[in-house]
């Protein structure tokens, strides 16, 4: 399965390269159709029961599972979903752990036990239990609990609290070590007593903050003084918002208020409160609720629900507007029975990674899935034309075809 997808992606690169060399515009991702493929079932290791929150990116899935009285962070990856128990073996006294996010190479979450004074400590992994790094801030005083929620591979984000924060959550940023921790709680915006961050591009961090009753989406560029309040000013009736992810130019999340009937609506920003776009589907009937989780700068992914889905969430894909929504659950293999789905991440080529719950080939449970763009017939025609033109050019210029 992986070799098929790898070949498909290589073909897309060849297409784009050839067309670019010839000055032919590459068809937009919005024009492409998608196909869904099940990568592997997220089965539990022997002796584990229950599932923690699952997140997926670039073919990896992270979460947690129970082992009686304790839970362990888990990682699924590879063509068949090989399972790795991430509970730290290199850090003493951590008996409970959960993985909250991955970028495909790094995993983040938290752990606790006798070695942490039974406080939560943010953790970072590179694919194995022995690679665990304790991110509990050593450079910030009186933060006793910390949680890592997202990673770009170079930066990690989350939140922490303790007497030094008035026991309010403060958004935190790391660069791979406990000593690199930065407190992002806004210093340039008044009235923000708490904050959290859930996504980073490596240069920007996205999250939310507030005063205890109202949350506003926030965007940072590495410091507490760089905070930008993203709560929509160009959309009426949004009193609450949060940002879940950023690629460095776009930010995505959700919000609600009187303007949405107090239903969550997926939101897209381009760095300012006045740039907000309400993504709640207008071209799909029966979607009252939606959330955006990730963006590659051109497309956005997340999930939505409503009367059309029987209240269950369906993975969604957008291309910057409410009327561009695609219900990705409908594109999963037709020989499966699907209950709900979630799109967690999207790469630069438009490949979408997520999770789906249902039954396939006699197996019931959560599955890691990938939705990939399929070139339009017109694109294939352009490829043939481009290829022919390229061959003619090389024949004329070089005297032979290589």
Describe the protein's topology.
Blueprint: H1 2-21, E1 33-41, E2 55-57, E3 60-67, E4 70-77, E5 82-85, E6 96-102, E7 107-112, E8 121-125, E9 133-134, E10 145-151, E11 156-161, E12 170-174, E13 182-183, E14 194-200, E15 205-210, E16 215-220, E17 228-229, E18 240-246, E19 251-256, E20 265-269, E21 277-278, E22 289-295, E23 300-305, E24 314-318, E25 326-327, E26 337-346, E27 352-360, E28 363-374, H2 377-398
Structure description:
- This protein has 402 residues and is mainly β.
- It has a domain of 53 residues.
- The chain has two helices and 28 strands.
- A four-stranded antiparallel sheet has the order 1-28-27-26, with no helix packed on it.
- A hairpin with a 4-residue loop joins strand 6 and strand 7.
- The longest helix has 22 residues.
- The relative contact order is 0.12.
- The N terminus and C terminus are likely disordered.
What is the approximate shape?
globular
| Radius of gyration, taken over Cα atoms and rounded to an integer in Å | 22 Å
Query: Any low-confidence stretches, pLDDT <50, length ≥5?
Result: 1-31, 379-402
Write out the strand line-up for the largest beta sheet, numbering strands in chain order.
Answer: 1-28-27-26
Taking the sheet with the most strands, its summary is: 4 strands, antiparallel
Please state the structural category: mainly beta
**CA distance, first residue to last residue:** 31 Å
Task: Give the integer mean of the pLDDT values.
Answer: 88
């Amino acid at each position: 399965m992986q070799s098929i997808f790898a070949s498909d992606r290589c073909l897309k690169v060849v297409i784009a390269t050839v067309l670019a060399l010839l000055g032919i515009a590459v068809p937009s991702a919005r024009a492409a159709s998608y196909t869904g493929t099940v990568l592997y079932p997220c089965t539990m290791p022997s002796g584990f029961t229950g599932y923690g929150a699952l997140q997926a990116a670039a073919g990896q899935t992270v979460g947690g599972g129970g082992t009686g009285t304790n839970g362990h962070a888990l990682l699924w990856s590879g063509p068949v979903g090989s399972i790795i128990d991430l509970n730290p073996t290199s850090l003493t006294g951590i008996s409970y752990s959960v993985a909250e996010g991955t970028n495909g190479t790094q995993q983040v979450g938290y752990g606790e036990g006798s070695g942490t004074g039974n406080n939560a400590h943010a953790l970072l992994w590179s694919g194995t239990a022995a690679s665990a790094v304790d991110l509990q801030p050593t450079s910030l005083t009186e933060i006793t609990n910390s949680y890592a929620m997202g990673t770009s591979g170079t930066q990690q984000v989350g939140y922490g609290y303790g007497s030094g924060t008035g026991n309010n959550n403060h958004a935190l940023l790391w660069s791979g070590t406990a000593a690199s921790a930065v407190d992002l709680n806004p210093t340039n915006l008044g009235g923000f007593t708490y904050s959290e961050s859930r996504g980073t591009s490596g240069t920007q961090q996205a999250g939310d903050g507030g005063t205890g009753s109202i949350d506003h989406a926030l965007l940072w560029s590495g410091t507490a003084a760089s905070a930008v309040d993203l709560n929509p000013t160009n959309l009426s009736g949004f009193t609450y918002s949060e940002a879940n992810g950023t690629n460095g130019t776009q930010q995505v999340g959700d919000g609600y208020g009187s303007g949405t009937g107090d239903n969550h609506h997926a939101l897209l920003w381009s760095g300012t409160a006045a740039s907000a776009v309400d993504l709640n589907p207008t071209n799909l009937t029966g979607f009252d609720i939606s959330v955006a989780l990730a963006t590659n700068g051109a497309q956005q992914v997340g999930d939505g629900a409503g009367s059309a889905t029987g209240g269950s969430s369906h993975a969604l894909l957008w291309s910057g507007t409410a009327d561009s929504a695609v219900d990705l659950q409908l594109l999963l293999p037709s020989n499966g029975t699907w209950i709900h789905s979630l799109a967690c991440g999207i790469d630069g080529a438009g490949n979408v990674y997520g999770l789906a719950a249902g039954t396939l080939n006699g197996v019931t449970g959560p599955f890691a899935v990938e939705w990939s763009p399929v070139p339009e017939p017109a694109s294939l025609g352009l490829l043939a034309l481009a290829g022919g033109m390229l061959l003619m050019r090389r024949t004329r210029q070089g005297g032979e075809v290589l």
